[in-house]
Amino acid sequence: MGKRKIEVQKAGKGGQSQSTKARTLDSDIHNPTAGSNNLPSWVPAALFGGLTLFLFRSFIFTDQMLVGNDTLSLGYVARAFYADALTQLGAIPGWAPLILGGTPFLEALSAGDALYFPSTALLLLFEPYRALGWKLVIHVVAAGFFMFGWIRALGGSRFAALVAGTGYMLAPFFVSLVNPGHDGKMFVTALTPLLFWVVERHFKNPSIRSICGISLVVALIIYTTHFQMAYFLFGAVGAFGIFRAVEFWLSKDLDLSSSNRRRTAGSRLLTFI
Fold first, then answer.
1. Which element (helix H / strand E) includes 62?
2. Would residue 88 count as lying in a domain?
């Protein structure tokens, strides 16, 4: 009798173990991204940074200039003049005498991104011919991180966000802009996922912090001075905000009445606008 009881107990434990394994397997089947969230936190930085170092190695590890067609024709002259004015006069120049017969410096956007903080900071830290290259390199790697953050905010796994970030930072429509030296287009393209990211965070958890985040990113995009791309980007983000508000209103997962969901969705859309 004693041996039989022991055998029954062992069989029970074995059955329980098999049941647990079955439940685990079923969970993995229904949630295939569960394991992909176990990627170490250092992987995105290592991958995005490593790809950028490899792609721009001939610029980063030398003292050469990252040559762009527009950079040679106008970009370098205007930025070097701006850097000299900042370092020698300590002020933003009001007139650009080297362009045509002379043009207003700020009003005519003679130096393009003169008020874009990252560009100005790099001009103060490096020689102009190096700063022009570094701002492109930094925005390439930043684009990967911003896309990674947006996909994670949408609920994607770490692996999915890693793939999206890698694909975005290496997308031909983006990284190929280094060749002509179209820095304004690269700035707006790199900041695009960041703007969608902060908007998504606002609709999930609205606060003064989220509103300030949206305002800061919008200001950065405007200061890139590529107003054409900024115009289309703001239209796309506005449509995304309306979509998220309607989605929130129609959601059945929230423990709110229909009228409360409508009011909450409307308030989040209003603060976003």
1. none
2. no
